[in-house]
């Protein structure tokens, strides 16, 4: 069974996907974390983030591992735990540009499909239902207002010990990223024709999960 959950930044995809996977005894695959890990790697190499022509030859040096622990999913970049580091505002500002790069997408697409092979998975991102897993059994597209998403991102940054900028600036960043993601050349943010859209602006996490579980059980 394959479940695809797509949507814009901070719409709640990852949180919902983790809980849904747990309830269905499926493997959770956070594709956004994979793109963020690549972005963090490029930022760590002096000047590399601006040298797009050199990204391709550096991809072979990147090893990403997703590991489930009692405290949640951990993300490792070349054996280093970067679970919190990939959520920084600096990474958030650069990840759309990295995710729009064809070579990066091709590299991670192979990894994502490999992880989804021969096991039940819940995978979240921006193009899972349209590009990564177009044959997924169930597809959901989560949306929320930019202000609600900015508040969520602000709370997430504060909780993880980062010093967040203002909610207003985060909202501007989110709106800019939405525009970029929708209009990028390769695999843009787009709702699959057969996806169920869920507006999470005024819903709790539990309500969203329950809505998905109900749909899955009725269409099993």
Would you write up a description of this structure?
- This is Cytidylate kinase.
- Belongs to the cytidylate kinase family. Type 1 subfamily.
- Its EC number is 2.7.4.25.
- Pfam families: Cytidylate_kin (PF02224).
- Its main location: cytoplasm.
- With 220 residues, the chain is of the alpha/beta class.
- The protein has a domain at 2-26 and 120-212: 3-Layer(aba) Sandwich (Rossmann fold).
- Helix content is 48%, strand content 17%.
- It is built from nine helices and eight strands.
- It has helices at residues 13-24, 31-44, 55-58, 89-99, 102-116, 128-132, 146-159, 167-183, 205-218; strands spanning 2-6, 27-30, 64-69, 72-77, 80-81, 121-125, 138-143, 196-199.
- It has a five-stranded parallel β-sheet, with helices on both faces. A three-stranded antiparallel β-sheet has the order 3-4-5, covered by helices on one side.
- Strand 4 (72-77) and strand 5 (80-81) form a beta hairpin.
- Helix 1 crosses helix 9, helix 2 crosses helix 4 (89-99) and helix 7 (146-159) crosses helix 8.
- The longest helix has 17 residues, at 167-183.
